[in-house]
Amino acid sequence: MTPRPSSSGPDPRKTTGKKPAKAAKKKAPRRTTASANASATTSVSGAEVAVSPAPDAADRERLLAGTHHDPHAVLGAHRVPGGVAFRVFRPYALAVTVLAGELRVGLHDDGDGFFSGLVPLKDVPAHRLLVAYEGTEQEVEDPYRFLPTLGELDLHLLGEGRHEQLWRALGAHPTTHEGVAGTRFAVWAPNARGVRVAGGFNFWDGTGHPMRSLGSTGVWELFLPGVGAGELYKFEITRPDGSRTFRADPLARRTEVPPATSSVVHASDYTWGDEEWLAHRADAPAHEAPMSVYEVHLPSWRPGLTYRQLAEQLPAYVADLGFTHVELMPVAEHPFGGSWGYQVTGFYAPTARLGDPDDFKYLVDRLHRAGIGVLMDWVPAHFPRDDWALAEFDGRPLYEHSDPLRAAHPDWGTLEFDFGRREVRNFLVANAVYWCEEFHIDGLRVDAVASMLYLDYSREPGEWEPNEHGGRENLDAVAFLQEMNATLYRRVPGVVTVAEESTAWDGVTRATHHEGPSGFGGLGFGLKWNMGWMHDSLDYMSHEPVHRKHHHGEMTFSMVYAYSENYVLPISHDEVVHGKRSLVSKMPGDWWQQRANERAYLGFMWAHPGKQLLFMGQEFAQGAEWSEAHGPDWWLLDPEYGASADHRGVRDLVRDLNTVYRATPALWRRDTHPSGFSWVVGDAAEDNVLAFLRLDADGTPLLAVSNFAPVVRSGYRLGVPDEVPAWHEVLNTDAARYGGGDVVNPDPVKPEPQGWHGRPASIRLTLPPLATVWLRPA
Question: CB-based contacts of 612: which residues, under 8 Å, 6+ apart?
């Protein structure tokens, strides 16, 4: 096998491996003194055979310049008057001989790496080439004797922008084509004057491997015999202005480890073991099932671990804490680790930092076998400007919008996708399908949806133009999101999509075919992050308890709109970085009060309508902000650390919250229906108390009471339904085992016939300070 050098240096053609002497010294191809159009003769089994003229001057020039759109029409073997013409383009070769059965024909050297010959044969034979370089000979297949590897259906779907398994058509695929093993390459580059394949297999010189353009699709294709999995490659594109650029494959399914940038030919041989999980994944819709999500940044959860090493630790940890799902911050390849994966260059490749694609499949498989669903952050809003990736891929705006104002993302210095171009929509829709079908991902959390939906997002007047109706909505992005959601839900049973959408856009989780008051169909997401609840509740919690009465509405306002969408309550990575402080550090008071506030807040959050998401490290009250450089402060849990019990207590609470939550359908069965919630008291601002009922479909209740004041409230009366004979405390965030003061209600609490809060009966509870209490019918 030829050496596979990295292409991370300034010239991707450089290599440390040896190549034939002529190539190693970069000498010009051997030229002949004969005219390129002169005839010559060669001997075949003792007979004299006329040799065809070389390719005409125009073909020669275009092939040498890398601007030929159909090299197969010139190179290879072709029936012509008088027999079969063989033409070969092999820069640096000294001689080329055609081998066809018993036939051996030495071709004429036409100069500049071109060789040709005319053989008096009736039909074009299957043939190989014997290529002589200085000091060596290689017997190889002729890449230009093969028919295209893409069929009419593929080309039709590509042209329509409707190829839902685009990754099976484009990219690099080891395969057997016409009985020969090799790799088929295909790339969309409609503005290119020519495209060539360069890689370790040709010493990063693509001169001799030009691709052919397939009709009007803008797709270029080439089958290279003998190239297999593991080879590095890029596409050498000749731009409209004649300049050249080396580009990573947009559909590459594997990449080099950053900062190296080459694509890697990949063939998966992974055997899945999660059949049972997939068989039952669609048993219940996500919004009617328990969902408690642990958000993870894989490279820093346990720094230094690979996908397979993570698979030995992460599933056990998450299962022990009782979360139903993990959400992985972006896994797709990205050049800058400090972007946390949100500036993607390899949309179809799991990051090589932690292993190869089959290693990532192993991690997902192990999570599924542990009973844990896998959500993944997906970033279709924008991409970075790296000159080896998608930006002006073929010399002109292609994946980005052609209007510079529409293309430039104002916040991140990146480029926005052109959602109005069918091929770009196809690239992204198929990418969503790809992760769910090929990697068994259970759902996609779509990043930065708001920045996609509005033409004026982070733009000043004069920096944007209204849509055709005079509005600020990005109609192309709306259509793309609708298509993505509809396609994904149709193709992948049990999948869920989640929108990170921070505005009041109407119908984010409404079906795409149901038109709302704004005149738009729904976007079709399954769930939406409740950013309003997050900001309001964290603001409330940040105040000293004595001031909370003035902010009481921040804890109740979410119920005004709680059923307008299907919500997730996110305490995500975004809330514990860049000076925002960790969750426990946002809380006022001393260390005891900070932990008590966090525990009370988590108890309130888990009882509130909506699914829960908690970022790693917050489950054990990490005091420091998260950093991708070192991840969670696991040492806080070390028994040798004096305060470890404080941190273990918060983690024990999270475990019990999840355990009780999953066992209590009232907390999730009717998350998206008003009949699943009822206020007991929502206006006790002076007391800093909130109390409400969560109700199962059959009316079975859970009573949640939060006291956000630092005082014990004894005999606190709350109205309750009179049909419940007694209430039993099932969770109290002030319990001693969590690090609290152990102010609990140990005995069943029986209702009194005294009406209260508009209900026929009432109970008297002892409310611990800075705590949340859950009670169920005894």
Answer: 291, 292, 293, 568, 569, 605, 606, 661
Average pLDDT over residues 276-303: 96
Q: How confident is the model at residue 40 (pLDDT cuts 50, 70, 90)?
A: very low
Q: Would you call 447 a catalytic residue per the annotation?
A: yes
Helix (H) or strand (E) holding 247: strand 244-247
Contact call for residues 647 and 636 (beta carbons, < 8 A): yes
Supply the pLDDT for residue 9: 40
Mean pLDDT score of the chain: 93
C-alpha separations of 218 from 70, 161, 186, 762 in Å: 13, 12, 10, 72
Told to judge if 500 belongs to the known catalytic residues of this protein, a careful annotator would answer yes
Q: Is 32 exposed, middle or buried (0-12, 13-18, 19+ CB in 10 A)?
A: middle
Tokens 């059959």 found at: 698
Q: Per the confidence metrics, is the pTM higher than 0.90?
A: yes
d(CA 377, CA 220): 31
Please report, in angstroms and rounded to a whole number, the separation of the first and last CA atoms in the chain: 72
- The predicted-structure confidence for 450-473, as pLDDT tens digits, reads as follows 999 999 999 999 999 999 999 999
Whole-number Cα distances in Å, 615 to 51, 329, 541, 572, 622: 72, 10, 18, 5, 11
According to DSSP H, which parts of 635-730 are helical?
Answer: 644-662
With beta carbons less than 8 A apart as the criterion, state whether 192 and 221 touch: no
The single residue of 500, 536, 554, 646 carrying the catalytic annotation is 500
Rounded distance, CA 472 to CA 435, Å? 31
Please tell me which residue in 141, 274, 423, 447 is annotated as part of the active site: 447
